Write a sequence for this structure.
């Protein structure tokens, strides 16, 4: 589904170009639960942004279902982000002035739904993720685990092709981390493709593929 | 809603808009009240419809007297009736005071000047003068000057009861008057041969409906007579059938109210500049606040972008917030303006009130200010790079 060919990216610092990604080749198939591991500063998050259509300043080819992504404009990329990918962040990134339900329905609204139409779907999904009673609460009134569940709900409400999770358990305690990983595992079993960035080895057990990132280079561990 | 989250800041930013719109709606309410007042005075809701008269004035008076061309053709009348505010257009017949007709004196064809009288005529030396009854009955009777009587019948006293042909009609001479003798002789040519007949008789027997020099427009209710009249004059000067021969004129009743409207114009100008300045400053306040709001909500923008919001939809969101804020300010401003104009109405000879146009203009201007001044901050919000944010 996702195919990266010889992806290169560098940041400019003063007069030097500092390479962040060096000739990355990566393929993600439908149904994968892929973990990208590596120390901080190794370029994991950069790679994730690139896969999530946020960053388009790179060299090499990014093929999505065989189609090149790079040359698309803002409108098209926004649509891709909206329809094909769901983001889950370490700091949850819920909008604090909106209630949980309002946060979760945002992707649907950007996809052109009306507020009325989203209601049922949002309720069902929140109930499924175990926070059905928190619909009208604000993010600050929720625990970390509950906020991350809301964020996951927001990521999958639009039934995207894949989820990008950037250290989703990084701000949670061990027990809650396990809960959240169970949620991901359950979603993966239901057929959702997940790309997970992590440096917590315990979360890797849930994944079926692991790649390592070191100084901008990617190596796949075959198990 | 972000506006509600920061009530104090939004309120302070709105004050300028409130004052500006209050000023705008005050002048508009007073202006509209004045307009209604003038309209009521000139075109009341009840009773007869008001009419305005439009006269055609030729550059050449002689041509006007002699021509048989219609000064207002049927086509002119039909076009006038199609103008907005005109209920009916009719010719006014017989408002002529002088004309000339041909007659025969001692076998010689010649034109005589005719005075048309509507009431009683001048004093006579022989017979009797024209009376009101001659006018009302449209009698074919004439009073002729001494000189003409002398010429026709030698002895003027014998002319009474005799006939005189004017145009194709025979008139009975009922009196002879002594022309005021012009000793200097300067005007003798004009003094000669002035025959007096009742205007009604002339209209009845001599006009073919062709020489009416005035047209009367009946004004529809709800239209200003002065506006209808000047519109009609403008139309006639461009399209009227006699536009080449002279000019069209009307007497404008609204001139009476010019004094009031001059004072009002002064006040309007003053308040309009207050409104303009305060709206501009308010607009800059809005812009400032929007920039602050955008930078405070950078994170939110990034999240929304990650969820699929395009630059366009982010821009729209912030523009809408700006417009929302200024239109709320505009609504308050309108209410404030309503109170001001109600207070002003106590001092003025007319009343002011709620009217749709003022409401729409107030809301329109306030949202326009929001649109213009929040566009740049909203655009900046849309252009933010997502990678830097999340």
């Amino acid at each position: 589904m996702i195919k990266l060919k010889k992806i290169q990216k560098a940041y400019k610092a003063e007069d030097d170009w500092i390479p962040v990604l060096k000739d990355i080749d990566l393929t993600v198939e439908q149904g994968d639960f892929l973990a990208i591991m590596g120390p901080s500063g190794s370029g994991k998050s950069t790679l994730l942004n690139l896969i999530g259509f946020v960053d388009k300043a790179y060299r090499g080819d990014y093929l999505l279902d065989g189609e090149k992504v790079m040359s698309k404009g803002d409108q098209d990329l926004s649509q891709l982000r909206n329809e094909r990918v769901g983001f889950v962040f370490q700091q949850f990134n819920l909008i604090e002035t909106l209630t949980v339900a309002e946060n979760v329905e945002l992707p649907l609204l950007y996809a052109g739904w009306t507020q009325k139409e989203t209601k049922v779907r949002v309720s069902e999904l929140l109930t499924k993720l175990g926070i059905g009673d928190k619909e009208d609460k604000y993010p600050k009134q929720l625990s970390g685990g509950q906020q991350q569940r809301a964020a996951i709900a927001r990521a999958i409400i639009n039934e995207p092709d894949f989820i990008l999770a950037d250290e989703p358990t990084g701000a949670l305690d061990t027990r809650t981390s396990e809960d959240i990983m169970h949620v991901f595992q359950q979603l993966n079993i239901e057929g959702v493709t997940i790309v997970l960035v992590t440096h917590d080895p315990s979360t890797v057990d849930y994944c079926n593929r692991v790649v390592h990132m070191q100084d901008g280079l990617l190596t796949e561990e075959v198990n | 809603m972000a506006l509600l989250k920061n009530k104090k800041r939004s309120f302070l930013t709105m004050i300028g808009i409130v004052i500006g719109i209050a000023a705008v709606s005050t002048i508009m309410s007073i202006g509209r009240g004045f307009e209604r007042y003038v309209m009521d005075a000139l075109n009341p809701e009840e009773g007869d419809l008001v009419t305005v008269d439009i006269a055609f004035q030729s550059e050449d008076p002689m041509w006007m007297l002699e021509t048989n061309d219609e000064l207002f053709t049927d086509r002119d009348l039909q076009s006038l009736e199609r103008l907005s505010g005109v209920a009916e257009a009719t010719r006014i017949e017989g408002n002529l005071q002088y004309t000339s007709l041909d007659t025969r004196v001692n076998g010689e064809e010649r034109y005589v000047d005719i005075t048309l009288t509507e009431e009683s005529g001048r004093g006579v030396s022989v017979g009797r003068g024209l009376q009101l009854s001659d006018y009302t009955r449209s009698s074919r009777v004439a009073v002729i000057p001494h000189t003409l009587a002398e010429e026709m019948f030698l002895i003027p006293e014998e002319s009474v009861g005799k006939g005189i042909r004017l145009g194709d009609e025979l008139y009975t001479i009922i009196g002879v008057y002594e022309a005021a003798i012009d000793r200097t002789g300067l005007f003798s040519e004009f003094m000669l041969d002035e025959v007096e007949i009742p205007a009604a008789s002339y209209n009845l027997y001599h006009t073919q409906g062709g020489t009416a020099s005035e047209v009367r427009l009946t004004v529809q209710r709800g239209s200003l007579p002065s506006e209808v009249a000047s519109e009609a004059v403008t139309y006639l000067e461009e399209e009227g059938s006699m536009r080449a021969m002279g000019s069209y004129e009307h007497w404008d009743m609204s001139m009476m109210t010019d004094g009031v409207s001059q004072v009002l114009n002064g006040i309007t100008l003053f308040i309009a500049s207050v409104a303009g300045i305060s709206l501009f400053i308010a607009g800059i306040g809005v812009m400032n606040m929007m920039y602050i709001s955008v930078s405070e909500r950078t994170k939110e923008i990034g999240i929304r972008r990650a969820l699929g919001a395009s630059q366009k939809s982010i821009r729209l969101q912030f523009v809408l917030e700006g417009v929302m804020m200024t239109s709320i300010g505009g609504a308050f401003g309108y209410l404030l303006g309503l109170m001001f104009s109600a207070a002003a109405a106590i001092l003025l000879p007319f009343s002011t009130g709620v009217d749709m146009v003022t409401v729409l203009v107030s809301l329109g201007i306030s949202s326009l200010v929001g649109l213009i001044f929040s566009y740049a901050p909203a655009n900046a919000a849309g252009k933010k790079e997502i990678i830097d944010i999340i």
Q: What stands out?
A: Chain A has one domain: 2-221. Helices of chain A lie at 44-51, 74-84, 100-110, 115-128, 144-156, 174-189, 201-204.
